[in-house]
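Human: I hope this is not a bother. Would you mind checking the protein record under this note? Thank you for your patience.
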Amino acid sequence: MSASALAGLRVLDFSRVLAGPYCTMLLADFGAQVIKVESPTGDDTRQWGPPWLEGESAYYLSINRNKRSLSLDLKNPRGQALARSLAEKADVLVENFKVGGMAGFGLDYEPLSAANPGLIYCSITGYGQTGPARDLAGYDFIIQAEAGLMSITGPQDGPPYKVGVAIVDITAGLYASHAILAALHHREKTGQGQYIDVALFDAQLGWLANVGQNYLVSGNPPRRYGNAHANIVPYEVFQTADGYLALGVGNDRQYQTLCQAAGQMDLWEDERFQTNPGRVAWRGDLIPRWQAVFRTRATAGWLALLNQLGIPAGPINDLPAALNHPQAAARGMVQVAPRASGQPVKMVGPVAHLSHTPAGIFCAPPRLGEDTREILSTELGLSAPVIESLIAEKVVFQHPVS
């Protein structure tokens, strides 16, 4: 196997909760050396349970693999000095304090980049470094509401819904990792680092995609369609004789094939339904008729028929069914890594498959301060007596050896 794509890249991670840790985990999956810098009380998500594994939450475990944990007190001047020394050696720094938070520790971009001009410094906040909302705290749920997502999610005649995962945080982490890789490419050519400003609010607006564009073109506010699609019909969930299925008819040829297979040629011969724009315009007449059709057979029978004909359709799986799906197994989407204690941790694996430099799970998420001694010794060259004095004076914290 070739070396990891980001082998040798040093990432200093001052972030906590979700967006920042997700970003740095993606970099770590490709071999970046990530030092997770935590306060003596640790990342808040360590306590966001149940469920628990060895006293730590599944939430924390989901986004902190392939990292080492250094616990230090950034309110202590000696802790700040240690952080600055690490930043001088880093390629990338990621933080998600409120605007100005890192400056309070003397760890903002300007002084660190002066000492390390190649440093790529990424700040992830709720609303960004500029604008009237810059000082507000950023919470995924609030931004799902404020940036429009909830207005287009949920039943047509019911209340607005949030997405079932913290999708704003996740996508902000994706945008941040993408920007970091772009900045690394620029630095490779010029030697110049730079500052990256990522906002959760911007991330939410950024992936509104066709729904946002629909409004910009038409001037009409989008409405909720439940499980249906604003621009494609039929493209939604249908109840069957024994459950539900998701149907996604993507073009007119597929729709004609569906009508033939279901014995419903009258729903093709009606000129209103022969083109997708017509089906969108007349969905109120069309969909109830298909709802009645799909209730005549069981889910398995419909899926066997539709898959054979190449019409996109699938079952509504719960998470156990999805994570235990044969396709998930074939793709290695659930992997296991042992903790230092020997306790195995199951995790959802990396998504992208690179042919020469694949991502991987190299180690389980660390305990708080699990690697403090090692980092101070190997990265900063501190002697054992100096490290022990820092521990004794509570400048840093080392997790007890199991």
Remarks:
- Residues 10-207+325-397 form a domain with the Rossmann fold fold (CATH 3.40.50.10540).
- The first strand starts at residue 10 and ends at 13.
- The mean pLDDT is 95.
- The two ends are 32 Å apart (CA to CA).
